[in-house]
Every structure is written in C-alpha cells, then in structure tokens.
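Researcher: I've got a protein sequence and the SMILES for zinc ion. Could you write out the 3D structure of the bound complex as structure tokens? I'd like something to compare against our soaking experiments later this week.
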Amino acid sequence: MKQFVFILISFLNFYCCVAQEQYSIRDLKSGKFTDDSSYIYDLPFENKKKVFLIQAYDSKMSHKGEFALDFKVKKKTKICAARDGVVISARGDSDKGGLKPENMSDGNHISIKHYDGSVAHYWHLIKDGAFVKVGDTITKGQVIDLSGNTGYSAFPHLHFEVIGYDGTGAYKQLPTRFYTNKGTIYLRPGKFYKAVHY
Ligand SMILES: [Zn+2]
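Model: Sure. Here is the predicted complex with zinc ion in place.
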C-alpha cells in the first residue's frame, strides 16, 4: 500500500510540473504552447502569400528575451494589418538601415492600437511606403505599408510584435498566435507559413 501511495504521489508530482511549465518559453519556442482564450491574428501579409519566419521568440540573433517575430520578405512586399485597430504612430521618412548602433533610430514603422489596448508594431518599412496615416481606422487584412530594410536590420524583413497587458496586469510584449495554412498556431522559426485571411 505504501508503495502504491508513493507511486501515486510521484505520478501527481509529474503532472503538476508539466502543468506549471506549460507557459514556459521553451514550449513557446517549440510551438507547443496553446491558449484558447488569446486573440487569433492573421499573418501580416496578403492572402495566400507564403513567407519565411527567420526569427521567433527568444531567438539568439537579436530577439533574446523578446516576444517578437521576424519575417524574411523582399523589399516592397505588401504588409497587412494582422488585427483591427487605429494607427497611433507612423514613420516613413527614413531610407537608412544596417547593423550599426546609430541605425537603431532609423527604422520606419506603423503602430496599430487594438480595441483591447494592445498595440502591434510593424518595423523596418520602406521609405514613403505607407498606405495609412495616424488616426486611420484599420481593418484586419488591410494593406498598410510596404516592407523594407530601414533601422537596425541586416536584410529586408518585417519585425512584428504586440505589446499589451498580460494576465498579471504587466504591460509587456505578448506572444501572438496566428491563423495560417497550418492551422491556428504559435509560429516557429525556420519554417514557411502561408497567410490565410477569412
Ligand atoms: Zn526583429
């Protein structure tokens, strides 16, 4: 009987640990994490556009400790809103980009505030590529800008991140799941995904 109780406790302990670890960054990186209550974003590209995700969460290149995504796309790829909202910030006058420290302040961007208070940031956009301006109301899937290589960027790509309130009330970068040709998932680096708008 004692042995049985011991085995039972070990078994329960194992499951407790699994439950506690389900929100770990390791699972997010492997794409295992699922949270059915979180918003489902569209990929920020035109319907059926296939894109390569070069960096995801906590990537060693330039996303250490960050919940941000880098999509490798050619210059002038149409960037679409991943979620409805209002443009609260935009810049499109820079044509500089590179990996020097001063390039940190050279990036063009569009920032869209969603109705839950979170804000999506679309970075490294091309000079004068914007289709929208501050104050515009944006619908998910709407073309907002064109990709580029401005700011702290080694090659043309789109850096996408969402900042908002997490479950504890802290304002921080949030992991975002997407509706894709591979289902509703958290994206993994080194893979191709196709945008599916519905
Ligand atoms: Zn990035």
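Model: The helical segments are 2-20, 25-30. The radius of gyration is 19 Å.
Researcher: Great, I'll pass this along to the crystallography team.
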